[in-house]
Amino acid sequence: MKKRGPETLLWLLSLSALFGDQITKFMVERNMELYSSIEILDGFFKLTYVKNTGAAFGIFKHSLFFLIIATGIMIIAIGVAAFILSIRSSLLAAGFGLILGGAMGNFIDRLRMGYVVDFLHLSLWPTVFNIADVSVVTGAILLGYKLLFSGSHRSDFAGKGLEIGHLPEGKTERKDLPLDDTAGYQRGTDHGQWGDQKTQLPVETGRKDHPDDSKAETH
Description:
Blueprint: H1 5-31, E1 37-41, E2 45-52, H2 64-84, E3 85-87, H3 90-113, E4 116-122, H4 131-149, E5 157-159, E6 162-163, E7 185-186, E8 193-194, H5 211-218
Antiparallel strand pairs: 1-2, 2-4, 3-5, 5-6, 7-8
Helix pairs in contact: 1-3, 2-3, 3-4
């Protein structure tokens, strides 16, 4: 039975990032005036309510149509990849989940209002951002770390019902077959495929003298 822990983590973090982003934006809009600020850590961190018509951290301002299309494509690509591939790494699952949830959070804002609500303001950072931006950046960092520093990735993904580098259950690798047994290896295609039925080749049990050989022995 295939473990689904990483896949569950992906969707759990994705939904958590999405709902966390939308709830905090709703609270800011209901309780703060536009461009007002609330000091949290004096001289370091405060809440500042702004409307962002650009992408994460204020880039690509006034490019709403482009951002909606680009974000929509990214969401579909990540969702399809998560559905087709069985992600076996918890780190990859966390990265994809955070990116997906953050992207959906800002995507909903742009579709619903034409802008994104930003409210997190660090004194060391030039622009105001939100929970969705933090989720996307954190997810990207996790993916980058996994891909750059965690070695081989062949076992991190597996197609639905098929692990990379392994044959389906019950099948035998061709290199282990005896010479007289195809073990269900069918040559109906250019590359061949593994079948469920075995085709046993006839095995010659003894040597039969050729007629010419018997004649040659009489002379």
